[in-house]
């Protein structure tokens, strides 16, 4: 297990509202394991970025996951950007996204993609403010106990 496993678990517990929205289940050790092991089809887990944002006191307040080459060569796909429920609305998401975009550009990506749940209206508003536009909507996306409409969005880098 990665060294930051317990910190990631603590963060998931502080962001349980999103986990419940997505899966209909409370965060678990399996949720943490999936963060460290998951990547989109056809992408290389070893080439993906699993990043954390820490406060000066060492508290993990956000995590992100970005894969490369999905859905197309030259794409950077942000699979997760999750913030502590108590830290949302403070600009941390924008700062983290800027870091992710810089990494994507440095790796030669020409566009950045995300997927947002239809129910996650606050999340979709964030992505739209950051310049992401709808590419397609995917019905019947299953996550845990729930089925969603997922909106795939993109922006050029």
What does this structure look like?
- One of its GO terms (molecular function) is acyltransferase activity, transferring groups other than amino-acyl groups.
- InterPro entries: Acyl_CoA_acyltransferase, GNAT_dom.
- Keywords: Transferase.
- Residues 1-156 form the N-acetyltransferase domain.
- It holds the Pfam family Acetyltransf_1.
- The structure is a single chain.
- With 157 residues, the chain is an alpha+beta fold.
- It has a single domain (5-156), classed as Aminopeptidase, CATH 3.40.630.30.
- Helices cover 32% and strands 34% of the residues.
- The chain has helices spanning 5-14, 16-23, 29-37, 92-106, 121-129; strands at 49-54, 60-68, 75-83, 111-117, 133-143, 146-156.
- β2 and β3 form a beta hairpin.
- It starts with a helix and ends with a strand.
- The model has no long low-confidence stretch (mean pLDDT 95).
